[in-house]
Design a protein that fits this description.
The structure holds 2 protein chains of 2 kinds. Chain A is an alpha/beta fold. Helix content of chain A is about 35%, strand content about 15%. Chain A is built from 10 helices and 9 strands. Chain B has a 5-stranded antiparallel β-sheet with strand order 2-3-1-4-5, sandwiched between helices. In chain B, strands 6-7-8-9 form a 4-stranded antiparallel β-sheet, with no helix packed on it. The N and C termini of chain B lie far apart (about 35 Å). Classes of the chains: A alpha/beta, B mainly beta.
C-alpha cells in the first residue's frame, strides 16, 4: 500500500484498508521494527493554536525516530501576525521540510495547506472539524486491547454534540461491525448528520441518557467532558455533570472487562481514583499516539514502504 | 393575458432565455452568472406560473450560455428551463443538471471555516440532492453540510 506523499487530513479520506495498514505498521513501530525511522528527515510542526499534548506527542515521535523538527507552538511569534496568509506560510515552509504537521483554529486549514504544499500534510486538528491522528490512535488502542474491533460494544459518553474526537471516531467505527451506544444528555446528542452516516453504513446505534441500563454490556466506554459553557442554564449543568462523571461507583455499573478511554486532557470527568483500576487505559492510549504518529510520518515521507 | 403581454415585450432574436425561475431569484442568478455586463438583459419578475407559484424570467440577448453556466441555476431553482434562440427560433431546449461541485460562487455559512478568513482561500462545495425540494452543499474544507439557500451566494 503506497502512502508516500499522502495527506492525512480527514477520516473521510481514509479507507478501512488504509486504517488497517496504519494499525499494522504502528504495531511494528511499537515492537521496535523501525529504529531511526526518520533519520535525516526534517518535519515541520506548525501549531497556529497551542496544543501541548498533541504537539509534544508529534515532536517526541519525531525525535524518538531520529528526525529533526522545526516549527512554532503558537501563532503569536509567527509571520501570521504580520498578515501572511496560510497559503503563503505553507508555500514557504514546504521547501524546508519532508512533511508538515499542522494545527489551526479554523476548520479546513489543513486541507488548504495540503492544496499548496509539495510535501505531505498531517492534520493535527483543524478547529472543531477533524483530528485524524487521534482517531487512528484510538482505533489502534482498541485493536491492541481486544485483538479486534469487529463485534465490540462501544459506548461514546458525554458531549457528543461538540466533541470532535467522537465525531471522527464514530465515522471510522462505521467501517466495522460494532454496536454503538451514544450516551449523552438530550441537549448534547450526536448531530443528525453523523447518525445518518452510521445509519447508511449499517452500524446499529442506541441512544441513552444514562449508563445504567447498558453499562454492563460495554467493552469500551469512551469518555468526553461536558463543558459548562455548552449549557445555557448553569443549574442544568450542575444537575447533569454528576451523571457524566466517572467515579469508582461508576465502575460498579460497568463490566469487569470494560475499558475506559479518554482523548485527554481530563478535567474532572474521571476521578483520579479510577486511574488505578485496570479498566483505565487513557494514559496508555495517549502513549500509543507516539507509535501511530511515528508510523504515519514514516509512511507519508516514504521512510516505510 | 399577462404572459402574452410579457412575451411581446421580451421576445429576442438571438440569445438565451432562462424561464421558470423561482421568484424572486432573477437578480441573484444574473449576479451568479455575471450577466450584468454581458449584452442586453430583459428581466421579468413575479409572473404567474404552473411550475412554481411565481416565476421570474431572464432573456440575455446575443449571449449563448454554456451548460456549465446554466447548470449552476439548478442549485437554487431546479425547475428553471433554458432555451437557446437563434434567428428567432428555439434551437436548443436544455434541461438543468445539478453540478457535482461548485467553486467560488457560494460562501461557507460556518464563520470559523478557513475560507472566511483568508482572501486567497476560495470556496469549493460538493453538492448532494437530498430530495426534490432540498439540495445540500458540503464545504470541502470545513466539511460542514448545509442546505443550499440563496443567502449563501457571495
Amino acid at each position: 500500500m503506497n502512502f508516500k506523499n499522502k495527506n492525512i487530513i480527514s477520516i473521510r479520506d481514509i479507507s478501512k484498508e488504509q486504517i488497517e495498514y496504519i494499525m499494522k505498521i504502528s504495531a511494528q513501530v511499537k515492537a521496535g521494527t523501525y529504529p531511526d525511522l526518520l533519520k535525516n528527515k526534517v518535519l515541520a510542526t506548525l501549531f497556529f493554536e497551542p496544543s501541548t499534548r498533541t504537539r509534544l506527542s508529534f515532536e517526541a515521535a519525531i525525535s524518538l525516530s531520529g528526525g529533526n523538527y522545526i516549527g512554532f507552538a503558537d501563532a503569536i511569534n509567527s509571520s501570521v501576525k504580520k498578515g501572511e496568509t496560510l497559503k503563503d506560510t505553507i508555500k514557504t515552509i514546504t521547501g524546508y521540510c519532508h512533511a508538515i504537521v499542522i494545527r489551526h483554529p479554523y476548520e479546513g486549514a489543513a486541507r488548504v495547506a495540503a492544496e499548496v504544499s509539495k510535501v505531505p500534510v498531517i492534520n493535527a486538528g483543524d478547529g472543531s472539524n477533524q483530528h485524524p491522528t487521534q482517531t487512528l490512535l484510538d482505533l489502534f488502542t482498541i485493536n491492541e486491547k481486544f485483538g479486534k474491533i469487529d463485534g465490540l460494544n462501544i459506548g461514546l459518553f458525554g458531549d457528543l454534540k461538540y466533541g470532535r474526537t467522537v465525531h471522527s471516531l464514530s465515522m471510522a467505527l462505521a467501517y466495522y461491525n460494532v454496536n454503538l451506544y451514544l450516551i449523552s444528555p438530550e441537549l448534547l446528542q450526536m448531530p443528525s448528520y453523523y447518525k445518518q452516516h452510521l445509519k447508511q453504513s449499517g452500524v446499529p446505534f442506541f441512544e441513552h441518557e444514562t449508563l445504567n441500563e447498558i453499562g454492563k454490556k460495554l467493552d469500551i466506554l469512551y469518555v468526553t467532558r461536558l463543558q459548562r459553557e455548552r449549557f445555557g442554564d448553569p443549574l442544568e449543568y450542575e444537575k447533569m455533570s454528576g451523571s457524566y462523571r466517572v467515579t469508582e461507583d461508576t465502575l460498579l455499573s460497568l463490566a469487569n472487562h470494560t475499558k475506559i478511554m479518554h482523548p485527554l486532557p481530563r478535567v474532572d470527568e474521571i476521578t483520579p481514583a479510577v486511574d488505578t483500576y485496570e479498566n483505565a487505559i487513557y494514559f496508555e492510549q495517549a502513549h500509543n499516539g507516539i507509535f501511530v504518529r511515528q508510523a504515519l510520518l514514516g509512511l507519508v515521507t516514504g521512510a516505510i514502504k | 393575458m399577462s404572459t402574452e403581454r410579457a412575451y411581446k415585450v421580451f421576445k429576442i432574436e438571438n440569445g438565451t432565455v432562462i424561464d421558470h425561475i423561482k421568484s424572486p431569484l432573477a437578480l441573484k442568478i444574473i449576479e451568479i452568472l455575471h450577466l450584468q455586463n454581458n449584452g442586453i438583459i430583459s428581466i421579468g419578475m413575479n409572473f404567474d406560473s404552473d411550475k412554481t407559484a411565481k416565476k421570474d424570467i431572464i432573456k440575455v440577448e446575443n449571449v449563448y450560455l454554456s451548460k456549465t453556466e446554466t447548470d449552476l441555476i439548478a442549485l437554487f431553482s431546479p425547475t428553471a428551463t433554458i432555451n437557446i434562440i437563434k434567428n428567432g427560433e428555439v434551437i436548443e431546449k436544455r434541461l438543468l443538471e445539478m453540478p457535482d461541485f461548485v467553486f467560488s460562487i457560494l460562501k461557507c455559512p460556518n464563520p470559523t471555516c478557513i475560507t472566511n478568513h483568508f482572501h486567497d482561500c476560495d470556496t469549493k462545495f460538493e453538492i448532494f440532492k437530498v430530495n426534490e425540494k432540498t439540495t445540500n452543499a458540503r464545504c470541502v474544507f470545513c466539511e460542514r453540510e448545509t442546505p443550499v439557500v440563496p443567502e449563501m451566494i457571495k
